[in-house]
Amino acid sequence: MSIFSRFFGRKNNLIVSSDIVKKDARSRNIAFVDTEVGLKDHKIHDIGALRYDGANFHQASQTALNKFLQEGKVDYICGHNLIHHDARYLQLNGILIDTLYLSPLLFPKRPYHHLVKDDKLMSEQMNNPVNDCEKAKELLMDEIAAWNQLSERKRKIFTLLLQNEEEFRGFLMYVGAIEKDDAIIEVSEFILSEYKNHICAHADIQALAAQSPCGLAYALALIGTDDYQSVTPGWVLFHYPEVEHIIYMLCHTQCTDGCEYCNRMLDIHHNLKQLFGYDAFRTYDGEPLQEQASQAAVDGKSLLAIFPTGGGKSLTFQLPALMDGRTIHGLTVVISPLQSLMKDQVDNLADRGFTDAVTINGLLDPISRSLAIERVQSGDATLLYIAPEMLRSKTIERILMARHVVRFVIDEAHCFSAWGQDFRVDYLYIGKFIKEYQERKFGKDAMARNHGQTLIPVSCFTATAKQKVVQDICDYFKSWLGTDLQLFASSASRTNLHYSVIHVDSDGNKYNLLRSLVEKTDCPTIIYVSRTKRTRELAQKLTRDGISALPYNGKMDADEKVHNQEAFMSDKVRIIVATSAFGMGVDKSDVGLVIHYDISDSLENYVQEAGRAGRDPHLNAKCYVLYSDEDLDKHFVLLNQTKLSISEIQQVWKAIKVLTKQRPHVSCSALEIARQAGWDNSVSDIETRVRTALSALEQSGYIERGNNIPHVYATGITVKNMDEARLRLTESPLFSEDEMQNAIRIIKSLITQKHIAKAQDSEAESRIDYLADILGLSKRDVISSVDRMRQEGILADTRDISAYLQDISDKQRKPQQMLENFAKLERYILEHIPDESLHITYKQLNDNAVHDGINTSTEKKIRTLLYFLAVKGYAHKKEDGVRNLIVTRDKDIETIIKRFERRIEVCRFIIERLYSLAEEINKTITEESNNSSSVEKNPSEEKGLGKASGATDNRKEKPLQFSVVELLNDLKSSNQSLFSDFSSLQLEDVEEALLYLSKIGAMKLEGGFLVLYNAMAIKRTKELRLRYKQEDYRMLNEFYKQKIQQIHIVGEYANLMVRDYNAALQYVQDYFQMDYHRFISKYFKGNREAEIERNVTPSKYRKLFGMLSKRQKEIIDDHESRCIVVAAGPGSGKTRVLVHKLASLLLLEDVKHEQLLMLTFSRAAATEFKQRLMQLIGNAAHFVEIKTFHSYCFDLLGRVGNLDEAGDVVKQAAEMINNGEVEPNRISKTVLVIDEAQDMSKDDYALVSALMKANEEMRVIAVGDDDQNIYEFRGSNSQYLYELTQTEHSRFIEMTENYRSLRHIVDTANDFARNIRQRIKSTPIISMSQEDGEVRIVKHPYEIQEKKVYMYQPILEDVTRLLRSNVSKEADASSRKKNETISILTQTNEEAVIMLALLHSHGIKAKLVQSMDGLRFWNLAEVRYFLKKIDQGIKETKSPIIPDDIWEAAKQQTFKKYATSQALPYLRRSLQIFEQTNRAKYYSDLREFVFESSVEDFCDISKSDIVVSTIHKAKGHEFDHVLMLITHPEHPTDDILRRYYVGMTRAKRTLAIHTNGNLFDSLKSAQHLYDAQAYDEPNEIVLQLSHKDVNLGFSKPHKDAILCLRSGMPLTYHDHCLCLPSTGRDIAQLSIKMKEKLGKWELKGYKVTDARIRFIVAWKSKDAPRDEKESAIVLADLVMKK
Length: 1682
Prior knowledge:
With 1682 residues, this protein is α/β, with parallel strands linked by helices. It is built from 67 helices and 52 strands. Strands 10-11-9-12-13-8-14 form a 7-stranded parallel sheet, with helices on both faces. A 7-stranded parallel sheet has the order 42-43-41-44-45-38-46, with helices on both faces. It has a 6-stranded parallel sheet with strand order 15-20-19-16-18-17, with helices on both faces. It is elongated. It starts with a helix and ends with a strand.
């Protein structure tokens, strides 16, 4: 049974009264009737009638109408859509004539009838039924004339088919054409005779006539036109879908016997010659695949054709499409991924004289787009080229519904398969669209009735496809459309192409080789490169060298793309340098040379791109690859950057969940989703990436997508006709000339649509985007015009904006508070933009605002405000990748502030007005619910106004509906304004205020003009608790896995081609023809199969990870665990593992640099990681965020950090994250790496927890050693490291191999560690060395004869012995090692300073590493001077980047001024590190670096014989020989034990512990010695003065004198004061505490003998006023001797 049997079995509704039949048909009394019926109430609003005698009728009364008709003795009643519209509401007595159904029958040929468009009567009148009667009368007269012009046989055919159909019988009676019923048996003969050579001579006419006489009549009307571009109107296809099938049966079904028509019109050879001028189809090595595929298409089969590039693929679908257009007036829809390809094919067809191909794509301007749409609607188009994303457009859907679509052609069909080289998620929507399109057109059960198969066939084309791709494409269409694709695959290769790979080792060689190849060949040439930037660079370089070339890439402006492509195609330029975006479908036959400057990323792409050469089979063309090993690395990097990882889709899903928390539907923009997902604006192609993520979510059933488009209904028109509209528009001050013309076109279109009768989608016609599309306007223009016409009263106002308000019962209205906070901050920003421009960072601007009293300021709010100010033309904003800003005002400050104040005033009014409205509704609801005992429908729903949340029931907030025009009128009539000019407010002012309220988040607004900013409508279809899982990501993951393998495979091809040409050709052939897994096992044997799954080349992988131990590799290879906690023992390579893990995350684990965060506890550690990562992976390391906890939190707070203010910054940041006050892009991370995780405090852990909560899928990698937690005094606790091991999906790894220390040292440390009670690690550390090493525990008595024993002297002796041993080793060259390092570790700073003085007094070079309370690196005089010079330099340039000349000048000036200063090395070292770790020297980065660094970070210990340090400061370092000075503690806590453990594990070769306690007595692996000698304190000691040791206020008057001094200069000491030796002037005084301390030393017999300046520092009291200047103070060393 046929699919159309449902339609063919249509019942005939006509019951003809016998009285009417008997009536004399020649009685011609006729009246025309038209009714206006309300769309909502379905009641008669108006009736018009026009009688044959000229009398007319105009009132809304059925009785009066009947009387009017009876008075004229009317027999026939005529109208447009009378039978199924007017007659449903009116009791009409008479024979009915309907002009609607006659029109397509009698005017089937373009340009059709001038009074009818689709199913509508063209009219410029509104609500004037008498006028419409006039139109119906004119149309009927024309229809009668057309009837009379038909041949007698045609009239007979139509009469026989239609005389029993109610839509036609009245007319046939009126023209006297009724035949006897039994004459129907002759109809077949008449039709075959009348339409000879227009239809198949063997068609079963009798069956078609019996099943669907109307459908057959309409089909014949169209067939009878000699214009193949005429089409059946969409409304006819909607109501008589069988018309398409009948035309197909008559004109496109090849008869078995053969007839003249079929032999001519359906013969592909005849049409190939006729249409394209070719005598024969192309063959591939003798295979007639092109002919077979074309025949299959003509036969209505679905197919998949795999033809090589340039193999005549286009003709294979164009020929059947043109044949279908000419036989059945059909439309073939070609879905293609590239806009350039579409344009190219349309142009190529036009060159051949075919003007019936059209493309609708994003490159078209609105006018061209509307013309293209008009051509498809009118039937001009036989081929329509569109991109897959266009299938979501309602306009496209609507125009396709109105055409006979005969086939969907999908070009580049490999995009369906995750195994293809260019998988596109939006391709997966195609099957769904085709299925739903058929269901809308032919009924929900259409495919079921066709045995589950598609009614509209598909053709898929691709140039290259391996077996798995073919299978995927076939499975896809089987699953969606129930169809089996017939396969036409060519195995032939192009014989006129010669391939060659040349290995090059440098960029310079590569370019020289390119130049010589181009010069030598001298023909049209395509040069392929992998990056868009390089297209321009290379084209410019060639042009400079006298070889004219143009660039082409996907990111160019549309105009430049078109210009460059056309210049190449027309031989104006012979060389094009392009990315793979160029060439898909480009058909230039004389390209003789294709050079891959960078190798392609897959064999498929390489074969396709190389195949652009030699399209002319008689031309021998050359294809070169200039290959270097780095090419593959570039592809891997590029893939990493463009890849959409599972975590990014999870972030988008989380953003959708946040946006749809209150209700499942949301309207928003791609950028809004990106921002909510935490993606940085600097992410390239951010909108495309969001759309791809949404497609993936839609594919997995998490969301449904639509377009957020408002409607403008014709029912809202208030003018009577176009003349009145024109007059009102001309008189209105609201419209400029252009705007008036737009408004006239819009209102005319709406008036025309008022008469919609049978349109299948009247909603579509009223959509803003449809109006924009058909009128060639932008959506913004349409919305603007519609709003102005509403304001002018030409259109009725529509409450098309919804506001979702906060709890209205709350007296503290949140929107009001938000508005005032934002207004205060905005005023501050506007007033701080100088007349020229503001150069600043977001962070600095926020810091300034907070310091200036705007406590509610945040970086997020500033970003929001600057975005708004830029969008609305208050200011211009430029921003670079690291958030440096240049803001320029658009007008003078007075104008800007005035506009700002006015907007804020309007905002206040809007908030007040909307809350009042909500309260009124709330009150009404409460009253009604109190008055009514039964549960009734919420009245607010009927009014369309939102139920405020204070109402008695707890249902979710409903929107409050209002309009811009309504608000404007309220504002104008309000007296609340402080300003006198509210009367001059325009719509734009109200829109600006609403947009502002929306953007600052004061209220959620949707609809109306806001769709311009929020164009996507998203419906969440899964629950909020659900997560996007690995299984959902399977298809994309498969695709990316394939992409990685394809890069390896193409690299293997290049290497093979260099070695063996024939083997390489065989390799390519095997790739496309063998089963993929067999291919892999043939060419990638053994562990090579694992190699090609990695996102790096094998050589790079070995270089990066080859040297790691098995346990270290375990951490690198774990790509899955949500939380990896590594307890890394001392010397186990913790830093190394972390650096390599960072490299692995970036290169192998899909983590993008902006999604990775590493937190450390010191700036020095952050710097070291950055340096080591740079050594490992190069410049990519610059983009990785490695920060200290404090620095990152200052960032989150938008503050410029410094260590003085770091107190509770971590706690604040954690709270802000938990309260949702931090912009998502600052905290959206997919991986968090924590160094020294055992040092986390309660606040640090709160921050980590907040980040984990904010990023539900974030992975955490924490590395630490609980045994080395020595900062309990500042709140750190290794319990938090343990907490991480308890999180879900966590993995705990112990790293116990020690690569640092010799065996005895490790054994001793293990023994000692057993004394520590709270431990996470359980496995003992193992030394990886074969040597024993030496551990000596030297025990001293605490006192001898009540005199304390000091251990400085024995340590000095040990050091002297070690130094002598070092010298002898150096002398003995055979056993010579690098200079061995020695360190003395003490518990206190004071011990370290005394030890240092003792060493110096014995002529031993030693360096001290220690911290000083209150000493900040940025306060050093040398640092301050350098920063001052930088500030002066960049004030001139206003650049956020410090230019090299200013940097160098500042360095030279500082080094010269402080040449004699002993503190200068600290500055030198800091600048050296900053230069190494910052590719561009941003001023903001320099300030951050300086303010977060400590003096000890830049203590260079490399050139010292001895390093003296406290144990705390030695953590993270290692030395060959360690000597520890341990005074026995009274209460050895775990914290103290861990500190000693840290000291012990610094030693590599020998460890000596001098102690006067018994803590180390039980250590088995050590030598235990007892030294009973009494050692006194050294004769000379040094006391280092810190801030608390000097009277800070004393130095204030001496600032200038102090700044002339330098570190290392001598001072004179007297009476607790320090003075200048030259003048005797006192410049510093000791504090009271220091005087007491000095007194104690004096009691022991010590006296101050001299003093030296250690540092000159800037200082200001914390309580001082902001404008008070800093003073300078001296921190000195006091030397005391006995």
